[in-house]
């Protein structure tokens, strides 16, 4: 009887059981009442018969013996037929039976009417509440199909019906998540298209101008060489921009699966600073690595080295000739921290809360060739692996970026 787990069905079933019990009690009462009434009528009839016989001179002993007798003979049956008192006698012609039937019928009809009214009234309330529940479900499901998820189906009771509601709610949650993902995907696509269009406009315009100059002065080798180099720089900027945008798109779409493996921190940082060694030497800057040589970190080697590389590039961009960039790492009880510090121009307090926004360029920034995606990309890579990144900076003194990876002490033991 699994349907009894539902509260409404359980109450209705108990209501019907109560009605059945009341009907049984009233049946017993009616039987007892009918028996008493029949007994009273028979006693009244016997008293009338005895009174008539006594008036006619029949002795009391004969009358008493006749009343106590239970035997029926042919003479008695014949006499009853002669006076019209037989089973074939119509009910209206039998006063005793008529009176008993009328009294019992009225009492039974009243009781059955009351019980029937109670059953109909209780059933009407139950069906009305069920209908209201179904209307609510239909309305809510229609809202789900229209993408509206403000209302929810009732799930605070037991029973098969509410199990079905729970299943519908799970489908609605999945549908809501799908709609939100589709909406985010559309917004992301629009944002990416807008960003790419905006960021490519300047280098493409420069390329067009450089090409026109080269075509107009083909006999000027110095001019051709100069603007060819500028064209190459613009192409490199476009390549860098598109590469960074594609990486950001893959990270935002969740299509990147970080392959975490235990690696030496020295190997990780060596990979990160290798592309910038020549640039640092040419610009008269120094990159120093400092930390335990046997320290191990579990992370994605390629992506994490790129994130640190972006921090190194940012430090080189904002550090003048003779500048020093220090990369340090240190193990703490529950984490490993890697910091990238420089003694460059620093970040103003107006900009420090915005530096991880995409394409953000400070009004105080000098004219560097960056596209404003290095720091957001580093943040996305670190946070995608469960880490955090923070920055502390003092204008005209330097900046320190700190990456924290929450790890186990067993990692440091190899």
TrEMBL record:
<protein>
    <recommendedName>
        <fullName>histidine kinase</fullName>
        <ecNumber>2.7.13.3</ecNumber>
    </recommendedName>
</protein>
<keyword id="KW-0418">Kinase</keyword>
<feature type="transmembrane region" description="Helical">
    <location>
        <begin position="101"/>
        <end position="127"/>
    </location>
</feature>
<keyword id="KW-0902">Two-component regulatory system</keyword>
<dbReference type="GO" id="GO:0016301">
    <property type="term" value="F:kinase activity"/>
</dbReference>
<keyword id="KW-1133">Transmembrane helix</keyword>
<dbReference type="InterPro" id="IPR036097">
    <property type="entry name" value="HisK_dim/P_sf"/>
</dbReference>
<dbReference type="InterPro" id="IPR003661">
    <property type="entry name" value="HisK_dim/P_dom"/>
</dbReference>
<keyword id="KW-0812">Transmembrane</keyword>
<dbReference type="InterPro" id="IPR004358">
    <property type="entry name" value="Sig_transdc_His_kin-like_C"/>
</dbReference>
<keyword id="KW-0597">Phosphoprotein</keyword>
<dbReference type="Pfam" id="PF02518">
    <property type="entry name" value="HATPase_c"/>
</dbReference>
<dbReference type="InterPro" id="IPR003594">
    <property type="entry name" value="HATPase_dom"/>
</dbReference>
<dbReference type="InterPro" id="IPR036890">
    <property type="entry name" value="HATPase_C_sf"/>
</dbReference>
<dbReference type="InterPro" id="IPR005467">
    <property type="entry name" value="His_kinase_dom"/>
</dbReference>
<feature type="transmembrane region" description="Helical">
    <location>
        <begin position="12"/>
        <end position="32"/>
    </location>
</feature>
<dbReference type="InterPro" id="IPR050351">
    <property type="entry name" value="BphY/WalK/GraS-like"/>
</dbReference>
<dbReference type="Pfam" id="PF00512">
    <property type="entry name" value="HisKA"/>
</dbReference>
<keyword id="KW-0808">Transferase</keyword>
<keyword id="KW-0472">Membrane</keyword>
<feature type="domain" description="Histidine kinase">
    <location>
        <begin position="195"/>
        <end position="409"/>
    </location>
</feature>
